[in-house]
Amino acid sequence: MEVEALVTGLPDAAWAKPTPAARWTVAHQIAHLHWTDRAALVSLTDAPGFARLVEAALRSPAAFVDEGAEEGAALAPADLLARWRAGRAALGAALAAAPADARFPWYGPPMKAASMASARLMETWAHGLDIADALGVRRTPTARLRHVARIGVRARDYAFSVWELPPPAEEFRVELVPPDGGEPWTYGPPDAAQRVTGPALDFCLLATRRAHRADLALAAEGADADRWLDVAQAFAGPAGPGRAPRTAR
């Protein structure tokens, strides 16, 4: 696994390196992935237990994500890495065994197992970017970004709701150029009046809020599509501050 390879063998001091996420180190990033994997496993296997996790999140909506990351980051790096590996394996087995048509609760809309797997890929990719930035590593985008793009498109209405905006009444056409420059990845009706076009990597960076819109080569046609590029997010929970434009850094 690419993200695991980034941290395997790192000296303990490197786990304390700051990442682009405010106050989060490399250890915080891995701890968050482990924490979210555990939550997904509970969702798949223990619905009452997951309801208790949601209740705890609602008691501290602005802090529960950071608190989960802090808990894991306090572990010794070797212990955290071992727990993350074991948790990922358990989650993978649970996803493989889950009924294909069943929907499981989440912090956002309920999801089928396939969508939950895509969500875990999306988060791992996004937090892996933060780790790579901290370590000065350049990652090469691949066709696996299709999972991230798909969930970003499907989360359109949810993203509007996070910003307390009414979701658009009509579907958009989304056309994204994959990293290898092949046939575009397309979503929505071809004759839709409102459209978003551009590189798939840029859309994925936008939907995971790893880059500011001003730094990306995405184009929108239509007022609602244009607004979407301001609020898009592929993940559940608060949007967070996002990244500042490069010119403002």
UniProtKB/TrEMBL annotation:
Signal peptide: none annotated. Residues 3-132 form the Mycothiol-dependent maleylpyruvate isomerase metal-binding domain. Pfam families: MDMPI_N, Wyosine_form. GO terms for molecular function: metal ion binding. InterPro entries: CHP03084, DinB/YfiT-like, Maleyloyr_isom, MDMPI_metal-binding, tRNA_wybutosine-synth. Coiled coil: none annotated. Residues 168-216 form the tRNA wybutosine-synthesis domain. Gene3D superfamilies: dinb family like domain. NCBIfam families: maleylpyruvate isomerase family mycothiol-dependent enzyme, TIGR03084 family metal-binding protein. This is TIGR03084 family protein.
